[in-house]
């Protein structure tokens, strides 16, 4: 591009048209939770086409939108150095001049102006890196503790639950997503979220699948080995993804080794692992995390379930009485009850969490996790009569 007035152009990626409406580009990038750098002309010496106050946006890929002067060599320097600013997260002041020594000084990085222009331009590059999004899946004591602890850090926290009313006591800064559809969850979160799945078996598979669909660099799962195996297999079906890919993406048991046992302690171990992964991947920047290098927390070790918070093989929290969280107020006329064939809980057939029709019979379930497990392999949960016990 030669010196002259700014013109519209198409970026190398073909994603968007470069435009002098920088604010609109910033809004689009912010909506997608993508990092970028602001480039602002803070000093100029003619002859250059840029003026003090001219500005542009440069994406992490190096695409420039806006105006910092027409000289192609000046733009290429801004694009290159802006990418480095996004990667480092540190702002910089750069100067571009025919003789870099003329502008070189403390606090400024000088570069040569290799075009025919004899002018000088100085540009301030300011990184805009979105906060890392932490997606916590589940309405369990561990999940709630994690959400409360994460409020103290520079994280955008989203709690995924099956019922928004169940999340009324979360911090005001926490977003609540009341859907269990993996595709909807993935579409609702930003770029490269960090995901912790701690629903205690109720909808773990759906959380894992959502993490896979969102290209999450970290998916931590709080579950026993047996539950994790079943959940990852089911998640692969839900995400229509190779099971090995899912297994490789999931860290289980999740959390660093801090001898955690209570829900707040396990949440602290999970948060420590999240911070570690965040430091390796970069805030808001998509990258592949080597989460397998993190040490598991004692409190979530698959070989020693902790009674206070560990899920048992049926997806309920150890130490809880099956069905307690589903029992309503007593009524004069008891509703028909069925036994969940997966976990053995009593289920109100008038208001089940899920049902599955199989071989001409309807089965009732306390949660979607049990329904998913049954649907994947009904025969393993049925007795010789082929049915669950129903009683009034």
UniProtKB/TrEMBL annotation:
It holds the Pfam family YHS. The lineage of its organism: Archaea, Methanobacteriati, Methanobacteriota, Stenosarchaea group, Halobacteria. It comes from Halobacterium bonnevillei. SMART domains: TRASH. Residues 1-26, 285-343 are annotated as: Disordered. Signal peptide: none annotated. InterPro entries: Ferritin-like_SF, MoCofactor_Util/Proc, RNR-like, TRASH_dom, XdhC_CoxI, XdhC_Rossmann_dom, YHS_dom. Residues 340-378 form the TRASH domain. It comes from the Archaea. One of its GO terms (molecular function) is oxidoreductase activity. This is YHS domain-containing protein.
